[in-house]
Amino acid sequence: MDGQSPPRVLPLLLGLQLTALCPIAAVEIYTSRALEAVNGTDVRLKCTFSSFAPVGDALTVTWNFRPRDGGREQFVFYYHVDPFKPMSGRFKDRVVWDGNPERYDASIILWNLQFDDNGTYTCQVKNPPDVDGLVGSIRLSVVHTVPFSEIYFLAVAIGSASALMIIIVIVVVLLQHFRKKRLAERADKELGLQEDPVSKRQKNKIRLTIHRTDKVAYGQ
């Protein structure tokens, strides 16, 4: 038996060497972790991944759902070369494939959100020989309205500032217009006052000339 042990050890050593040369890597999954969406709208559940192995026909994507209040895990979507939609259950006719394996994207779109869609959605990607790795998860909260974010507040602030600037410009233009109008009226008035003495002197000269003419006519 001692003479037969070396041949049995050689295949084992060869296998260990091949494993060392071609290690199995893990698929890295990236998701948004937490997401809020309004009831009755559509939402994109984004899931991207990275893999050392080239993406091929062996790639598989599995989406599952676990309700927030507990309960069993439910099937949502499966992809392997082609997308496979659920044929029954709560997600029937409500989920579509929106990924692109060549771009390492395994996202889906969920239509017509309902309040009982609250829960955790998991995205698992296997790309042999990369089959290990953590499962990505998204905690979805379906709400009546989405709270204002910093982007909304910034947009409102910019809009308000722009409207205020327009109002200020209009007020300045109107003030300048009325100021010029008042100055013009004042100038016309002053010009009229300056012309009145001249008119009076001319009238006095005319009256004096008429008076002298009358004296000559009557022989005075």
TrEMBL record:
Keywords: Disulfide bond, Glycoprotein, Immunoglobulin domain, Membrane, Signal, Transmembrane, Transmembrane helix
Bilayer topology: Single-pass type I membrane protein
Transmembrane segments: 151-175
InterPro entries given in the database record: Ig-like_dom, Ig-like_dom_sf, Ig-like_fold, Ig_sub, Ig_V-set, MPZL2_Ig-like_dom, Myelin_P0-rel
Every Ig-like domain range: 23-141
Subcellular location: Membrane
Protein name listed in UniProt: Myelin protein zero-like 2
